[in-house]
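Researcher: Next sequence.
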Amino acid sequence: MQSEPDTEAYAASKGGIVALTHALAMSLGPAVRVNAISPGWIEVGEWQKPSRRQTAKLSVEDHAQHPAGRVGEPRDIASMAAFLLSDEAGFITGQNFVVDGGMTRKMIYAE
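Model: Next structure:
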């Protein structure tokens, strides 16, 4: 969705995932629905193994630069996955869902 200098390999791999998602949706449907989730800034410090676990030191600015008003949490991604697995998402396939608190829609980021 966006790039920084020297991130060609990362950008290419993300593009590959999006392309593979819609190609698999065509090949495997209708028996299988295929979707992707592209997470934004998700704080996972407390989810690390005990030896690496740490409490996040997020600033007010870190949260404020997200239109949703906060940095993401693992449950935000889990909620999207649960929805996509549910019967309510039965008509959704071949899509990439950006779950980033609106960050990719914002033009300026705090440094």
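Model: The two ends are 19 Å apart (CA to CA). DSSP finds three helices and two strands in the chain.
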